[in-house]
Amino acid sequence: MKKIKLISVILLTIIVTACNSKEIIVFSPNGNIFAAFEIKDGKPYYRIAKNDKQIIDFSQLGFDLNGENALNKNFTIKSTSESSFDQTWEQPWGEEISVRNHCNELTVELQETEGEQRLLTIIFRVFDDGVGFRYVLPEQPNLTEFEIADELTEFVLHEDMYAWHITAYKGEYYENLYKKSQISKINDTVSTPLTIETNDGQYITIHEANLTDYAAMNLYSKHNSTTLKADLTPWSTGVKVYAQTPFATPWRTIVLADDLNALVNSRIMLNLNEPCKIQNTDWIKPSKYVGIWWEMHMEKSTWGQGAKHGANTKNVMSFIDFAAANNLQSVLVEGWNYGWDGNWSGHGEQFSFTKPYPDFDIKKITDYAAKKGVKIIGHHETGGSTINYENQMNDAFAFYKKYGIDAVKTGYVYKLLDGKELHSSQYGVRHYRKVIETAANYQIMIDNHEPVMPTGLQRTYPNLMTQEGVRGQEYDAWSKDGGNPPEHTTIIPFTRGLAGPVDFTFGTFGFVNPVYPQTRVRTTLAKQLALYVVIYSPLQMASDLLEKYRGKPAFEFISIVPVDWSKTIIKESKIGDYVVTVRKDKHSDDWFLGAITDENARNLKSDFSFLDKDKKYMAKIFKDAPDADWQTNPDAVVIEEIEIDSDTIMDLYLAAGGGIAIWIKAE
Ligand code: NOJ
C-alpha cells in the first residue's frame, strides 16, 4: 500500500498542476490499473486507465431523482479514505476452488455545497484485472425516501472498439443472438455483460455485481458515440428504483483482461458480492440430469393432461432407471402439476405447486428414485405470475422437501411479470431474491429460467445453481429461424457466460426435428460433447430423448464429464470463431478439454503443458470424423485412446459446426 500511495501522490501533483482541479487516484495492487475520481465544476467524474493507457475517459456519475434536485452537482469532497484487501475464500462449487480477493479501495464522501447539503458516497475497488464502483447514500435528514428517475453513470470509452451485444429488456429474457459491431454503430439499449475487444486485442467487460433491491443495469449506446450510459430497467410507473436511505447500489464492474483466459478467470464480480449467508452448504451438490423436457419441445408428449401427458409415473421411472445406469444424478420433471391445461403463459394464477396431476404419483416416484440413488428436480413454471407463486411459495417448497426433492427449476414465461412489470426491473429483482432466500430456508437449489441477468449472487446464496437468460438449445427445437447458428456457442462463454452459470441444456444426439424440419441443432455430435466443457454450469442437462442415447458409445463422455472444477484455462480462442477450454476435475486428477468451432472447419493445435510433468495420462478422444459436417453428416464421431503427457502437442480437427471433447485420465 505504501508504494501505491507514493505513486498516487506523484500523479496527483501532476494533475493538479495540469487541470487546476483535484484528482484522487487509486491503483490496483500491482500498480497497472487505476481509477481516478475528480470533481469538476461541482460534478463528480471518474476515469480508468491500464498500463498508462486511458480506457474510460472522464465519465459522469450521479442520479436524477423524481421530485427533488438531481444528485450530481454542487458537490465538494467531504472526506476520502483508502484501504486494501487481500483475502482468499473457497467456493462450494465453481470453475475453480479458491478465489483471491485482492484490491485497493478508495471511498469518497461528497456533500452538496448548496441547498439541502445532501450526502453521496462513491466507493471504488481496483483489482489487478479491473475496477468496481458503487454508490452509497447514507442516512441523512434531507434524503430519506426517494425515487431514482435515472442513474447518470457513464462509461465513456476512450476509442471506438468492437463489442458483442444483445438488445435489452424487450421481452425476450436475454434470448437473443449476439451481434458484433463497433460501439459507435450501436443505437440501442443493450444488456450487460457487454464484452468489448480493444484495438490491441485485449478485452473489457462491463457488467454489475450484487444486484440487490435495484433495477438491472443496461447500457444505452447512442449512434456515432463511444459513450455508454446506464439505463436501468423501469417499473411500469416509469420510476427506475424506489429506495430509502441508507442505501447502496449494486457495483458497476469493468473487467480489463489481457486475453480471454484472464477474462473468464476474472473473479471481480464474485468478489464484489457478499460472503456466503448459508451456514451449512453440504446439501448443495452440482449434478447432471436428464428430464421430461425435450420430448415436450419435440411434441412427442405434453405438459398438460391428456393421452400424451409426459410426466406420468411410468415415464418418470424410466428416466430414473436411465439416470441410475448412466452416472447421472437427477431427473427433471416438467408438467407434473395442475395449471398447464389451456393457455398458461400469462395465466400463471392457475398453477398449483402442491397438486400433482393424477397420473404423477409423487410418493411412488420419489421412493423409487431414492432407492436408485437418483434425485428428482422439481419444476415451478409461474407463467409470469409472481403473486400466485409468492402466495404458495412456502407450501410449494415444503411440499417438495417432504418428498426429498432438493432442486427446483423455476420459470417465468410471459412478457411481463403479473401482466405489468419487466423481469429485470426492481420488481423482478425483489421477487427472484425472495425465491432464492425462501428456497435456501428449505435447503432447495434453484435453476432460474427467464431470470434477471445473473450478477454473482451465487457467492452469497450458493443454492442459486444456474440460470437461463440465454438463447439456449430449446431454440433448436422450435425457433422459426432454423435454430442457433453454429457461432452462437463460441460467443456465449465470453458474454452471457461471464455473468454466471448458464443452463443451456445441450446433449442432442438426434439431429432430425420432426416438428420443424427446417429447424435443427446446428452442430456435430462431437461439438455437443465439447459444450459440456466449454459452457459452464454446476447443473448440466443431457437433454435429448433417452432413445437417442441408448447404445451410443459417445454417451460415455456425458456420463463421465464433471460439473465441478478446480481450474479453468481458455487456450487460444477467438470470440465468434472457436473456443478451446480446458478444465480440471475438482474430485480427481483428470482433465477435460472441449473445443468448438463456428460454421467453418478448422485445424487447431493444443499443447498439454498444464498437465503434471512427471505423469502419464490416457486421453480418450471424441472427435469429428473426417467427413463430419453439421449440415450433411452431424453424427460422424470417432472415439480413440492415446497416451499423452505434458509435452504432447495435438492436432485438433474440427469439422464445420464441429468440436472435440477429450477426457484426460491420470494413470
Ligand atoms: C421455458 C423454459 O426455458 C423451458 O426450459 C421450459 O421447458 C418452458 N419454459 C416451460 O416451463
Write up this protein.
The chain is α+β, with helices and mostly antiparallel strands. The protein has 2 domains: 2-267, Distorted Sandwich (Beta-galactosidase, Chain A, domain 5), CATH 2.70.98; 287-564, TIM Barrel (Alpha-Beta Barrel). The protein is built from 13 helices and 36 strands. Strands 6, 7, 8, 9, 12, 13, 15, 16, 20 and 21 form a 10-stranded antiparallel beta sheet that branches. An 8-stranded antiparallel beta sheet has the order 1-2-3-4-11-18-17-14. Strands 27-26-25-24-23-22-28 form a 7-stranded parallel beta sheet. A hairpin with a 5-residue loop joins β1 and β2. α5 packs parallel to α6. The longest helix is centred in the N-terminal third of the chain and has 18 residues, at 2-19. The radius of gyration is 25 Å and the shape is globular. Residues 1-20 have low confidence and may be disordered. It binds 1-deoxynojirimycin. 1-deoxynojirimycin (NOJ) binds at residues 293, 334, 381, 411, 413, 449, 468, 474.
Give the class from helix and strand content and strand pairing.
alpha+beta
Output the number of helix runs: 13
Average residue pLDDT: 96
Main sheet makeup: 10 strands, antiparallel
Shape: globular
Strand content: 25-35%
**Unique bound compounds:** 1-deoxynojirimycin
Oligomer: single chain
Domain count? 2
CATH fold node name of the largest domain: TIM Barrel
What's the CATH architecture of the largest domain? Alpha-Beta Barrel
Helix content: 10-25%
The counted number of beta strands is 36
Distance between the termini: 46 Å
- Radius of gyration computed on alpha carbons: 25 Å
